[in-house]
Design a protein that fits this description.
Distance between the termini: 66 Å
Order of helices and strands: HHHHEHEHEHEEHEHEE
Helix content: 25-40%
Shape: globular
Radius of gyration: 21 Å
Length: 316
């Protein structure tokens, strides 16, 4: 590329960033937290918790803008990413460069969702697919012990740097209570945040979590809706198990959501009635939140809409 060609490309990148950030600045953040047509979910609408953008959320966004202004750092990240993507998954590159941290909820928002009112901490939390541990750090203060799993090697480094106990992705449900005992550890809470649409066998994972939770233990699930599975480590990027085509309530009768529901509410209704409830999870609370990610050279941050569900593990 010639000098003038490179200069013109950089100029275009900077102009695009100005335009993209101008678009972001005009977003009404209150809309992130509003679930439209909630009356369509008549059986569970009383469990919806309306949250708002709080100080921690604002601070994350402010930090995104500040980091994005470091032009030469972002430029270096862009060059490194374009080279390493031929050898590494994007998640691992982000872990290596310490970029692309996520924000699902603040510490106070999580406290509200799990209805934490005790003066003493809860027992043990397992955070599946913990990434760089930024979201884990919002949950950790409420638990005595925190275990994490992560497939990406570089993200595992970041988790260990933060002091989180790391367990193998294939062994997290086989942690022995002690060397002398043969029984396995049961968790007080398991978090599965934006993982079910990124793993190969989400249905099998849900059943594993059911078995690994204590009776009445909490399952915290975050899902980007509408649900669009994408498995980074599969050649065709498709999961082996499709949650939207799973009916566990009755093998003979499929309970279809009402045709009058919007797409998101149809998926919520299907997942709760035909997947989570038959496995043995009872919905306790749910909410709608922005799923935020640090930006890059193109714009200061990215966002999707998350629905966060808190289930209780019903004893059979």
């Amino acid at each position: 590329m010639s000098y003038y060609g490179a200069r013109n490309r950089l100029t275009k990148l900077m102009l695009d960033k100005v335009e993209n950030d101008n678009f972001l600045s005009q977003i009404d953040h209150t809309q992130w937290y509003i679930s439209t047509d909630l009356d369509q979910l008549s059986s569970i609408k009383h469990l919806f918790v309306h949250l708002d953008k709080d100080t921690e959320t604002k601070n994350f966004l402010d930090n995104c803008y500040a980091k994005s202004e470091h032009f030469f750092t972002q430029l270096m990240h862009s060059f490194v990413l374009s080279f390493l993507q031929y050898f590494m998954a994007i998640t691992s590159i982000n872990g290596l460069l310490q970029r692309g941290s996520m924000f699902v909820f603040s510490q106070e928002q999580f406290k509200t969702l799990i209805d934490f009112q005790s003066e003493s901490k809860l027992g043990t939390l397992l955070d599946l697919g913990a990434g760089d541990g930024q979201v884990t750090s919002k949950m950790a203060p409420f638990f005595q012990n925190v275990y994490t799993t992560e497939m990406s090697t570089t993200m595992r480094w970041r988790l260990q740097q933060k002091g989180f106990r790391l367990v193998d992705v294939n062994e997290w449900d086989k942690i022995r209570i002690s060397a002398e005992e043969e029984s396995f550890l049961k968790f007080d809470a398991i978090s599965c945040l934006n993982l079910l649409d990124r793993c190969d066998k989400p249905l099998s994972l849900l059943k594993q979590m059911k078995d690994a939770l204590k009776p009445n233990g909490l399952l915290i699930v975050a899902l980007v809706l509408p649900f669009k599975p994408y498995v980074e480590y599969n050649p065709d990027n498709r999961p082996s198990e499709d949650l939207l085509n799973t009916w566990l309530r009755d093998t003979c009768i499929k309970k279809e959501p009402s045709s009058t529901m919007n797409k998101v509410n149809k998926q919520i209704s299907h997942l709760i009635e035909n997947v989570f409830e038959p496995i043995g999870f009872e919905l306790a609370k749910f909410t709608r939140l922005p799923y935020l990610c640090e930006g890059n050279l193109a714009q200061s941050y990215f966002y999707l809409i998350d629905y966060v569900f808190v289930f209780k593990n019903k004893p059979f």
